[in-house]
Specification:
The chain is an alpha+beta fold. It has one domain: Cysteine protease Prp (Alpha-Beta Plaits, 2-Layer Sandwich). It is 35% helix and 34% strand. The protein has two helices and five strands. It has a five-stranded mixed sheet with strand order 3-4-2-1-5, with helices on one face. Strand 1 and strand 2 form a beta hairpin.
Length: 112
């Protein structure tokens, strides 16, 4: 099972998101759940990486583990709000459609 944990700040902006595990919803290399989560997380990583106004860290230290942390300046708020909403709605959709293979929690966390 893939476990997704996401944290939003008090204003609803993405602070942290991690995905860990393997869905095992299909054969290795053909698992639509794993592929969907991977594509969303990698795309978020790439769009946050060099975006003006976004402070970002992320890593995929091994197969089945991916995390990212964000912060932003005033000029990056709007982009972070939109991109974070897109990422979380996509992940939430996967968890709802495939509850036997993907579980997601979202909580509020203060920025450090």
């Amino acid at each position: 099972m893939i476990i997704i944990d996401a944290a939003l700040d008090e204003e609803g902006l993405l602070v942290f998101c991690s995905a860990e595990g393997h869905a095992r919803a299909g054969p290795k290399g053909s698992d639509v759940v794993c592929a969907s989560v991977s594509v969303l997380m990698r795309t978020a990583f790439r769009i946050f990486l060099n975006r003006e106004g976004i402070k970002f860290r992320g890593k995929a230290p091994e197969r089945g583990v991916f995390w990212l942390e964000t912060d932003c300046t005033a000029e990056g708020r709007e982009f972070l709000a939109a991109a974070g909403t897109f990422l979380l709605e996509g992940l939430r959709s996967i968890a709802q459609e495939y509850p036997d293979y993907c579980f997601m929690t979202t909580h509020t966390e203060r920025r450090k």
